[in-house]
Fold these 4 entries.
Entry 1:
Amino acid sequence: MRLKYLFTCILVSFIMNSAMAQDSPILLFPDGAPGETTRLTEKADREGGFTGGEPVLRITGVSEPTITIYTPSEELANGSALIVCPGGGYNILAYDLEGDEVCQWLNELGITAVLLKYRVPRREGLQKHEAPLQDVQRAISYIRHNAKTLNIDEKSIGVMGFSAGAHLAATVSNNYLQKTYPAIDAIDKVSCRPDFCLLVYPAYLDSQNFQVAPEVKPTKDTPQTMIIQTEDDKSYINSSLFYYYALKEAGVPVEMHLYSKGGHGYGLRDTGASVNEWPDRAEDWFREIGLLE
């Protein structure tokens, strides 16, 4: 019942307070994203599937990555920010399920949410995450560069993601010492290291023999991390288990909540599984790491 009420509140809040989001998305690369020679036509589809009895908005054909900033009320704002990376296999973005709805939830906690529309689908000749990594690096640096204007603590900027978006969040958590594209302006002189990381049913983090994928090898400086996973998410459970182990071995503070059932791709919606209470655990974690009082 609490979960249904929470989801209803999020939807109502989204409808009534959509003005909280910045009116226009911000282009991350005003003169064109690195390596992009053709402007794709963005396509939005609500016919591709349902979660929790509601359709999922799927976006693809993104060649101009953007961020949209969702600002909490002055009464709730606590000075922290989270860049939100929707999933979709690096081919589409589950833009409402793992984007808009998540940003509204974060605003209710007083956290500034930054919805990242990164480049999809996968680019021929590039690793699946190569172009999106450029986008999320730029997004983090942009928010940190503008932290004072946005009333954000530059040392309290995190990243979170779902499925492929969680892979992207983990990848930038381990690839922040230098940009993966040529510097453009003063923004790119600012650190793109997240201060914390929340991964929900992450994909693609595992390799052979209990090793992690080469792009996500943790060190002691990898940001503190929380992982949400279900045992019956058969295709991706090893992503969470292997990455958790690698973080532990590197001495990184890490917390994982492993549920028995729930599958994959539930976002914040009520699908009738116990994993649907994960936002409560995330809120506890936010409080534990000092984001919330």
Note: Helices lie at 2-16, 96-108, 130-145, 164-173, 237-250, 278-288.
Entry 2:
Amino acid sequence: MGLLAQTALNSVVQMLVFAAVPCVCWLATARSSCAFGSYVGLRAVDAPARRRVAVWSAATAAAFVLVSVAVLLALGSVRSATSAFAGRGIAALPAVVVYAVFNTSLPEGLLFRGFVLKRLQASFGFAVANAVQATLFGLLHGAMFASVVGVPKALLVIAFTGAIAWCMGYVNERLAGGSILPSWMIHAAANVFSGLVSAL
């Protein structure tokens, strides 16, 4: 199977896994009151906020990319999610884009910022909900590296990804009126960058 086809298949599986809990909860509790897209914030940013959201999103994506470079250098030559693209050159670009947009950023955005953050925010407020989703996001990413790079470097990954997740939650809820599109695009841009660095 080619790289693009394998990446697309992996993306479908990832979407099914990460969307399962939000979908089941929506079916059980909110199906009659709102569409699934509204439930998880999968909707456009309101027009008056678009410029401010675009600026914040660009700044967050740039910070994400810069710190990603530092973290990747600190981790060394460890195998990561983008290792499948290593050395494949610009021909890997379609697979990198599918990976970045549909394999990581959308599923993780749906679960962490579209589901966890929104459901907890209703009961505990934004500050607690955003901290929880950011911590869970960081722990997931740190757990993927812990056995390979050791605990100190895994803690670096947890801190970095948790901080970025907090910023993405802030942009979504405080600036974009609850839309998860900004964090989806921020995350996708950073992952396109890391995928291309690996490919080139």
Note: The two ends are 22 Å apart (CA to CA).
Entry 3:
Amino acid sequence: MKDNKAINMDTLNRFLFDNHPVRGEITRLEKTYQSILENHNYPISVQNLLGELLVATSLLTATLKFDGDIAVQLQGDGPLTLAVVNGNNLQELRGVARVNGEIADNATLREMVGNGYIVITITPKKGERYQGIVGLEKETLTGCIENYFMQSEQLPTRLFVKTGVHNNTPMAAGILLQVLPANENTQESFELLSTLTETITSQELFQLPTDEILYRLYNQEEVRLFETQQIVFKCGCSRQRCEDSLMTLPAKEIDEILNEDDGKIDIHCDYCGKHYLFDAIDIAELRNKKNNNYH
């Protein structure tokens, strides 16, 4: 057995079956998931859903193969009004949820979101922005995203996602299987591999190295494992972005906020929890800089 302490859990690996027209990905998240949870007091069911959303976004980003940004967003009329994970092709991820009401620890997707949908927005560096919308017609998030692939890509896809706590640490992990494009008569192969993948346990996904997981699942198959890609939490907020946003507001509105909030404007980042403070002197400097840029 390998030393599990040495395993970097924030990783994505692609793999390919030599004897079946099916590809796969496996992602495991520890620090990235913790970074999303640590500044919030989410109900347990929302924590788990964010973990599933995080894993699904990582797998989607790798599967869709584009250079740019992706946002996977859950919206509805339930007590969980919003859950979103943003990422990019570098596997830099962040996420946040907004809760307005009580949510039980064992709440289902429908109980949390109510009548809602998933919006998947892809913004490539080159080319046009694409947005896909899929209704919450299935009982689980993974089922809804499998529906998305059938509607938009016409490719049979399965997601197997686990969230939980291992060694007192929240963890999320998952495996994606997908039929390769332009392949027919693949149902038997795909069902066989899906059945094998369904046997994976949370503990195996959370504890074992990727190559060992693949061997346990597919030891009768020939599987090629590709290079590991690291996954990181990256917020993207900055003081400069806050300054730019402030300068888009009417001067009167900024002055009113300063007067109401003890002479300070506190901009809080929902994603990472940072606070950016601006007082009257900061605002005066920003206005002066803005005026100078006009001349």
Note: Residues 1-6 have pLDDT under 50 and may be disordered.
Entry 4:
Amino acid sequence: MQVVMATSPAKPDQPNEDFVGAVPNAVVLLDGAGLAGTTSTCLHGVAWYTRRLGGALLAQLAADDGRELTAILGQAIAEVADAHRDTCDIGDPSSPSATVTILRVDDDRADHLVLADSVLVLDHAGNAPEVITDGRVDAVGSRYRAAMDAAPNGSPEHDRALREYIETMRVHRNRPGGFWVAADDPGVAAEALTGSRPVADIRGAVLLSDGASRIVDQFALADWPEVLALIAAEGPGEVIRRVRAAEAGDPQGRRWPRAKAYDDATLAWCTRFPNRQAPDGSGFTPEANMIER
């Protein structure tokens, strides 16, 4: 499988709290959750958490032992929890958490797992793209974001409303009727959206953090077929470039109300799946689906 990645921190002087990585048959993308200025019981921070969890996931996926993705995620969460439970109150809702998106190719099947609001787009040849995301975060958040959306980004009113929004959302984190993210409890892996598709039906796939998917779901600058075409023509970095241009043109969130004026943005574009046959029945050549610069 060929994977082309692009990532960009929200601000150059801040750590990128997204994570993306790949092994020969699988890709992992995480989007960390946390907020500067709110109280946290973790000494390490969100970027540390996403990198440790992403690394643990890749190590297990590299074993290629056929385990269910939920089992792999549960073990990875447990490993990272053990790494800082002696120094941090990992059960507190303020501790770092992350979305998790995994795509794994196993023989003639492509398995996926999506936990929380990152996005997986499957490019089905000849059919509309299949968009997979966990809408429970937005379903809960929509009830509490009115004050935040009404205030300009960067204003004291917005900062205060954002802190209140985050604190309120923490009450619903990893609880029935709320939403589910990777944090300290391995059991949340069972709440992830999972599925499997025949490799022969998939031409490619894109994994996006919500800072990148906002090109469609917040800014409406393109639809998903247009995004897939843009990535194929110019690479995943072009999506981030257009997102950054939109953010810069609306820094206060007047046109597009949002929690963060700028957000970490990450994509992984996957093509040339193993065992997928070309239309003439032959295997793909090494040059197939390469980006031309």
Note: Confidence is low (pLDDT under 50) at residues 278-293.
